[in-house]
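Handout, section B. The chain below has 296 residues.
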Amino acid sequence: MNKRKRSIAEHSLALFLEKGVQNTSVQDIIDRAGISKGTFYNHFSSKTDCINAILEQIRHEAELSRSKMLSGRDAKDPDLLAEQIAVLSALREKRGINAILEEILHSGDEELKRLVLRHRILELEWLAERLAEVYGEELRPHAFEGAVLAYGMLHHLLFFLKMTGLRERDFKRAASAVLHYMGFVAQALIRHGTDVLDTDLLPTLNLHLNREPVMKADIVMMLDKLLRERAQESPLSGPQADLARALLAELEREQPGEAVIRALLGPFTEAFADSPHAAEARHISAALWRYVRRRT
């Protein structure tokens, strides 16, 4: 997200927190940001698109932090997973995102509600993968339900902690407690078949939310377009071109390496920050994250 787009998003977020999402118009955002209507629509197609950009930015920051936490550590360590879980919760609380999400989910705006649910599904998919890593492959068929239960417990713990004065350390403490409970839940799901959710739930829900699977060929095409067509419009810097080519080369392998892609994503996004291609690079980065999660 370039500086201008980030500035508009920050003004929008401040207004959403002050007035509420439903009571904030595009004109309100334009007036607060001190920009023209054309400038707003150059960066966002609608208020919903603006909200999506805010949520995407928060999720991207969490993903980068989580990826860095993995360096030199055992992915199966529950303590590491507790830290990773706490990252997004802390970011959302710090930015006031939770209040916005709650307002949207209790509103009558179906488009916004689908948007929020798409982001929640992405987070649940991430946690389901991580739970399967930590508690073993036997949990994988039940991992999505495990993720739903884990986040349900975490949400309510943080809600009551907030009433008594939520502190920074409480996010990790609550996540650690939830993962302790999840050891028992995992065994119940695996050994006793206590599942409630239908195994066909996720594909059906994804179809309902209009989420398309991310294909490797699509990302290869996006990277190739960035290197060829976009570079003619505005030349890429050395690091930008090198990182884009490195990702492209990895994807063109028969078995792309997950670790290699994860290691390249942070530097790739940062290299394009505040460049004319920042939005496109961010889109490619998000697609790569989804692709990696679906492969593992």
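Note. The chain has two domains: 65-208, 216-295. Compare this with the example in section A.
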